[in-house]
Specification:
Length: 238
């Protein structure tokens, strides 16, 4: 299965502008994702789609192909699958062949477990699914321990009397590390433009990780968390 890796980065970010090139332990964030794809064995090629000039320079120095992302696909409201489709079409036109699947990798995720990209591709191929996403278990922010507020009055989000973490239903969140989708699912999503999740297809699979196996940088506090994980003796980086 020919699988194209697509690194996604935007210059704009309301929380941390141009966060993909923010320094972390002396290196820009995007450099870590470039390292992750360099360690992969199941990607036929890798490209970066971005409107960030600094990100282009960093990725190019690490041997990553560049696609200039159009301005209309670089806003905070532009759907990620639209940017991915544009990148696929540009790559296929340049190289004169089609791919079977794509792996979407956010440039603001400097922590990924070793080999996780290859494992996601393997699961996608083995199951014949439309998509595979990495997930991690929800713990203290479980829906059964959440509340709505009416003024200062607490209203249970889901009425229950669970007080032990061990009794909570096992639920998972997408940790942002890897999204692998077939090319068909990615482009079939054009048929249902009102569904932003349509590109995951019908058959959606999960690759379960630990919470510490991925760090998605959205706020300054996330940078501190990523730094602590990367400094740990058993850091999960390849």
């Amino acid at each position: 299965m020919d699988t194209l890796g697509i690194i996604l980065a935007r210059a704009g970010s309301k929380g941390l502008p141009d966060k993909c090139v923010r320094p972390l332990l002396g290196r820009p964030l995007i450099a870590y994702t470039c390292d992750h794809v360099a360690a992969c064995k199941r990607l036929c090629s890798v490209l970066l789609t971005t409107d960030s000039e600094p990100a282009k320079q960093i990725a190019r120095a690490q041997g990553v192909e560049i696609v200039d992302r159009p301005a209309e696909l670089a806003t905070d409201t532009a759907p990620v699958d639209a940017a991915a489709r544009h990148a696929v079409e540009v790559w296929e036109a340049r190289h004169g062949r089609s791919v079977d699947a794509v792996v979407l990798l956010y440039a603001n995720v400097p922590v990924r477990a070793e080999g996780v990209i290859d494992r996601a591709i393997q699961l996608l191929e083995r199951t014949g699914a439309d998509s595979v996403r990495t997930v991690a278990p929800v713990s203290k922010q479980h829906p059964d321990w959440l509340h709505r507020l009416e003024g200062d009055r607490m209203i249970q989000y889901r009425p229950n009397s669970i007080h032990r973490r061990q009794d909570l239903e096992r639920l998972y969140y997408h940790d942002g590390a890897v999204v692998a989708v077939t090319r068909q699912a990615l482009f079939d999503a054009l048929q249902t433009p009102d569904d932003p999740h349509a590109f995951f297809g019908r058959d959606r699979r999960a690759l379960v990780q630990r919470c510490e196996d991925a760090v998605d940088i959205d706020e300054t506090s996330d940078l501190h968390l990523a730094e602590s994980v990367l400094r740990a003796p058993a850091a999960v980086q390849p």
